[in-house]
């Protein structure tokens, strides 16, 4: 067993079928040896590959026009410039490399928006490992470009048709695969969720974001930022962006959740038209961990919703739930419409087309008070928006987003 | 000795599983009575959870049918209270439902209500021994059994720890993976049973058993009982979807046009008898090989 605690307060733990427990113990041991103690030079190789294959470090860039707009220094941590176009590679590369060190022969992973799936497919191709990705049918339709990318990197993409066919179902199905193939297969979970040691390990791989940002801020601006803002679905870019700042009490941490179309839960239909588990969820057990969840009175998990499929999840990382309860992280929400406005604003004012997930973090700057942001704010640009173009154009047309450009340049309209 | 231990006392036990409320409450109660008539020694009643990570497609679909029919923990207990069968009942569900029930935090209210309606024990597939302390305590308080699952990958200290904590019987998972009917008997079964032979507690093997012949083989390999779920759920699903053209997984609608529940119940009773007879035949063979 590793020295890492398996719980964050009451959150976390290992609620998984017995068949998986030996593999989780094995993983815990491997995490301790390779990642924590750098056995066989694992960490050195990981850092080297993040640099040469991934393109790290990513810049911390001052956003001039947003800084002017909000009257504070806005600095963007450009994870959209990481290979693959999102922060997801940090974790995927770490885990696929770890699986190799552990002698595993096969990789499985779930994906929601397809960002983790593409990152895992890239890492698996890079490290020559066979790879299968489970993805909800609905997400497959929402994120076609990413499906093509996974296939191009040689990964199998398995559609999941149970439930509403989003991330929650994809995770369940990947766990079922893993329960069958556990002796030869590693499950590269895509966020700081799941049974211990996944939340700790994924946070560790992602913490390179805040490690760099903290150093870059000090070099470029001096000292520490007053606040850090990141979007939160499962919470991997969130924990990555917060990790190295958690013990800096002067730095306020804001986790921006998807408010969807409304913050309530419809008990009749079992649908929460949002993905705001930190802001509105209650404690429960899902996918191997005790955490904050969107659930009905009986404990059935309800369907979440967000215009951004990467945030569309009914749970959240247990460490983040703990940090919220402790008052260290403040959860806030941004609804679908505001997120689309944020998407267009960053595209127009800074020349960066963000992922719809990231657009939530950007959009919250509109709602934040000057006291919340302070004199300087670091915003984690978790990914770029190429994958979302189709759905943004469609959603923008349906909703009359005020700051959206006119798309009527195509004769005969879009279709 | 609990009612569950006793159920294994007179020869090999047949332990069927059905999800309560599949495809509707009334029919499923009739099906459970049919299994009881067919020779069930213990009946595992599934209380459906929205994220059944240990289940294969057959039981996932049963869960969907039951949930779309409106099954809840409260309705589950109310229905069990009215159920008059000889076989002792075990509730199989996932931890979040156990944990959320009632006003008090933790699993105690769920266990208390289960004890009230006559449930004898629990199987909770996503609750490994490490996390089971509070539920084990509540079960001890109300005199219920907590049955743990032992997987083919469970060895050494883990195995010791689980065998110390399981009561009633131990659920021996015959193969890696999820639930589902199979045509063969896993060769992991014999090895798993050998690892468990030094413990006295009854060993019930599940995951993949669907015929009398398989039941015979598993019992002759040393099992004290057989657990059968998906093969029985298949009969329920076929009955529910007969008459509708789809036959797809989530046919919540359509069972109203399906076979009459009495016909489905007869089929279940017939397979139950076959499985029970298979198990008994296996015991006879195991006996004669030993002497």
Automatic annotation (TrEMBL), chain A:
Region (Disordered): 392-415
A GO molecular function held by the record: tryptophan synthase activity
Catalytic activity: (1S,2R)-1-C-(indol-3-yl)glycerol 3-phosphate + L-serine = D-glyceraldehyde 3-phosphate + L-tryptophan + H2O
One of the Pfam families matching this protein, by short name: PALP
Pathway the protein takes part in: Amino-acid biosynthesis; L-tryptophan biosynthesis; L-tryptophan from chorismate: step 5/5
Protein EC: 4.2.1.20
Cofactor list: pyridoxal 5'-phosphate
Modified residues (N6-(pyridoxal phosphate)lysine): 88
Subunit structure: Tetramer of two alpha and two beta chains.
Function, in words: The beta subunit is responsible for the synthesis of L-tryptophan from indole and L-serine.
PANTHER family attached to this UniProt entry: TRYPTOPHAN SYNTHASE, TRYPTOPHAN SYNTHASE-RELATED
Protein name, as recorded: Tryptophan synthase beta chain
Record lineage: Archaea, Methanobacteriati, Methanobacteriota, Stenosarchaea group, Halobacteria
Automatic annotation (TrEMBL), chain B:
Active-site residue numbers: 44 (proton acceptor), 55 (proton acceptor)
Catalytic activity: (1S,2R)-1-C-(indol-3-yl)glycerol 3-phosphate + L-serine = D-glyceraldehyde 3-phosphate + L-tryptophan + H2O
Domain of life: Archaea
Keywords: Amino-acid biosynthesis, Aromatic amino acid biosynthesis, Lyase, Tryptophan biosynthesis
Enzyme class, spelled out: lyase
Entry EC no(s): 4.2.1.20
InterPro entries: Aldolase_TIM, RibuloseP-bd_barrel, Trp_synthase_alpha_AS, Trp_synthase_suA
Cellular compartments per GO CC: cytosol
One Gene Ontology MF term: tryptophan synthase activity
Pfam families tied to this protein: Trp_syntA
Pathway entry: Amino-acid biosynthesis; L-tryptophan biosynthesis; L-tryptophan from chorismate: step 5/5
Location of the region described as Disordered in the Swiss-Prot/TrEMBL record: 243-263
PROSITE patterns linked: TRP_SYNTHASE_ALPHA
Function description: The alpha subunit is responsible for the aldol cleavage of indoleglycerol phosphate to indole and glyceraldehyde 3-phosphate.
HAMAP family to which the protein is assigned, alphabetical: Trp_synth_alpha (MF_00131)
Description of how the protein assembles with itself and partners: Tetramer of two alpha and two beta chains.
Family label: Belongs to the TrpA family.
Name of the protein this chain belongs to: Tryptophan synthase alpha chain
